[in-house]
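Sample entry (323 residues):
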Amino acid sequence: WELKKMDMDQIISHSVFFDGKIGIMGNMTELYVTFDGTESFEEITPEFSNIGGNWFFENLFWASAKTFYITGYDLESDSLFFFRSQDSGRTFERMAYLEHRIRDMYFLDEDLGFAVGGNQYAHGSSWYFKAIYKTTNGGKDWELKLRNGDLPRERLKKVQFIDEQNGIAYGDRWGNLWETSDGGETWVSDSSYNADVVTTVSLIEFVMFSPGEILATAWRGGKIRFQFPSTSVARKEILGEVTISPNPVPRGGSAVISVDIDNPGVYTFSVYSLSGELLESYSEYLHIADNLIEYSPEIPAAGIYYLLIEGMGGKAMIKIGVE
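Predicted structure, serialized as tokens:
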């Protein structure tokens, strides 16, 4: 890490970068933009003359190298304010009013985006609405697609899309995962992963790899729990289809891992337990197209594990059984 000095005394609580050069950082009342990878900073000053005197920034979001969003909250009017910049934070325009406070945004391009969050039923209450918005014109107009007050009563905190049709939104607790397969027009609550997990688990994170393939991590009692779908494969374009046969793999026997890649090079194969412990790891040089690798597990106990393959900027994961 290299220490970067700024001519300011304020605490930095927000830091969001679009790439290695362009980023915005600051705190609840001051924001600074860099265009040279933190070598220098410029203070950015949205026009807040029509906002009350007791306001603060809440979230910062990039939609492209030039398009940037700020959401904040005015305590006096109990309302959200929302700004967009189309010149990398140099100037801002006030956007449409939204009823619900926004905790996260996700843009597929400069026009198509989603925002999630929610409001309390009443001040001081722990009951919350869940809210999901969609925009098709770069944030000029937002359509409310979900407003739900069912258990668990908390706001949504994250939204992610893997393409224009498939995405997820979720909160901090089990039971607050929502999925869409029609471009965010409708959202369905998914509690299928709750089968063997108590509902008091918190600090949840989800990642969608493909439709129906979702990785979940959770904090409960000092352990990280991994919940996998029945055919869990995560991959970037660098890594194509990954299969293992037979699966489960017999102890003392072997299986064949088939990996389709676009970039030849050295790839690492690592086997983890469901608690995240690394059990074994080795490397192989893979060629373009299909590669067949013989795998003989050295895992001492039968059970469910996952195999992580990564290299040349790509990553893939598949659940394996040993019996």
